[in-house]
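Sat 14:20. Reprocessing the chain from the morning session after the first attempt stalled halfway. Input below, unchanged.
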Amino acid sequence: MLQRSIERLRHRGPDQQGSFESPDVSLGAVRLKIIDLEGGDQPMRTEDGGCAVSFNGEIYNHAELRRELEALGHRFQSHCDTEVALRAFVEWDVDCFRRFRGMFAVAYWQQSAQRLVLARDRLGIKPLYYAVRGSDIHFASELKAIFEHPAIPRRISETALGYYLSLNYVPSPYTLVQGILKLGAGAWLACSKGRVETGAYWSNRFHPEDIGLEEACSELDRLLSNSISEHLISDVPLGIWASGGLDSSTILHYAAQATPRKLQTFSISFAGKRFDESKYFRPLAERYNTQHCEFDLHRDLDLEAAIHNIAWYSDEPSADAGALPVWFLSQMTARHVTVALSGEGADEIFGGYQTYLADRYAGYARRLPRPWLRAALNLVDRLPVSDDKIAFEYKLKRFLAGALLSPDDAHFYWNGAFSRQEQRALGGGHDGQPLSALCAALPGAPPSSDILNRYLFIDQNYYLPDDILYKCDRMSMAHSLEVRPPFLDHRVVEFAAKLPATLKINGRTTKHVLRELVRRKLPPAILERRKEGLDIPAHEWLRGPLRPLLLDALGADSVRRAGLFSPQAIGALIDRHLTRRANLGYHLWGLLTLHLWIRRWNIETSQSPAYPANAPLAASAGD
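Finished this time. Tokens:
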């Protein structure tokens, strides 16, 4: 059974697989070799066998920690960060996680204490799932490895389904499978003799200080330079994802300063489309003299095959249509390098999304009588629909609908899909979940009067790890590619939390401090361009090349077999979209991927009985 779980994760670590088994525990590991190619096989144990580790990720300050541990008497057998993680735990126990700078999901077994400890990095870059069954605990980097255990039923969680339909992702700690949870970002879990204890070793705190623009730019310059230099550490070929946007261009600039090596850059283009970004990233590749590769996503591709593959590698359905271009970008990148740097996280820490402006403007709109807002929404509903990725009429409809909600619900709604009322209309007895409960579940959230920081904090805890980073991890690791986000160095994140709101959004200018920092470093066109985002024209493609897949996955027979929604209600949504009475591409994409996932993994949709309690403590395959 352990070997089958390990095999399920081979794409995450094709270079080495290993296991450690005893009467009390089974640990598995797969390894993508990046640091110390000759040493570092996993699972790794101390000389006396008293402690073992299965580790996924990178610790960028491992050399610094190694010197500190050597001074304390530890002797190393390799030069890899996994051994540093092992000996750091032996020395400092769970306090070691505060000392790590990097991205990781890690499992430790202490033989003498019969104790298993799991931990995840501060921002949730690397995934970690677990399921507790009586005194047993099963864990892995992906659900598919846990599914291999016969004691784990595959039943859909109604609570998580409500969140999925609302948000287009499942927020931690939930998963779409009943009884399986995500370990939270910046958290650890210890299990000993059937007792489970959890704790948090980090949480970002927003305490704005009186910092001027010049001082902020100087400090951010130092922090980004250090972070990007550390993220370039690798014993294998490394590249950069370059969209021509502000975030990836900033990383490219600092990376070019930090290394004399010729950099490799990788981009996605949409030939002939208004939102094609090649006019931005090609001049940048020339400016920094990179070895550049690009992949055109508007040519004749087997999109259906890719989407079916995504259903397998995702474990949980990704309702973010951006998964498709990230799939092809990862596929292309992995042909040339093993590691890539990306710009994830900058929007959530510096305020890069239009939704943060909508949060502010909605406050003014709510001063109007509600009948006026409803009348305006009814009027906008009559506007002709567009095939643009996110057209003006689509944004205006979402804004007006959100202005009729509470501020917290509206913020989630603008990035999401179905309102609770729309979920009820799908049939099947679904009532959605009150999204305000997600805010209440976050200790330390800024008050509603601090609008920007409140929603940055919420997005850093939900949208970033459970949508953006989840999508990036699954699509890249499906191709055995490690993607590193330098903006998510926790020192950068903590610094951003200290900044006044005006240094993040100044008037209508988003990411103000970052723009000012690179104003003299990057071409003006990069600073002035409109944000596009790596996404597909879902509205258009579901009326065009993906129409057959849509009609198959959400046909009456398929919907009836899944047993979640009314076939007539789903059919009405499809008809409205195909006849251009509404742009429902993102709604339908989420339903499509959900049904493909249910079909691929044979997920039960009926209510499940209580889980049986098992006897000895056992841990299943980790990564």
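The first strand starts at residue 16 and ends at 21.
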